[in-house]
Design a protein that fits this description.
Structural class: mainly alpha
Number of strands: 2
Distance between the termini: 33 Å
Oligomer: single chain
Helix content: over 70%
Strand content: under 5%
Radius of gyration: 23 Å
């Protein structure tokens, strides 16, 4: 349960950072070498924050999948030990 709490705290911190970015950063465009694209400082900072949010989400989901796989392996091993069948050799 500790990991879930840390995950929700991280999302709350990201939300607060996003709110601060939106209210504090200016909407002035950043000079870019290409003429067609204009990105504001606010949007650029929000995109960087979004990368960290996605990284956190992917890491949290990967940890969930690993825990599920570990639980299945433990159940499979305990089932073999109870049935008396030998464990496979690696």
């Amino acid at each position: 349960m500790e990991k879930r709490k840390r995950f929700y705290v991280a999302l709350a911190v990201y939300a607060v950072l996003g709110l601060l970015i939106w209210t504090v950063m200016s909407d002035l465009p950043v000079p870019m070498p290409m003429q067609s694209g204009r990105v504001s400082i606010r949007a650029l900072t929000m995109m960087i924050l979004a990368v960290f949010v996605m990284r956190t989400l992917l890491h949290w989901r990967a940890e969930q999948i690993r825990e599920e796989q570990d639980d299945k392996e433990v159940e499979a091993l305990s089932g073999r030990e109870q049935s008396g069948s030998p464990l496979p050799k690696s």
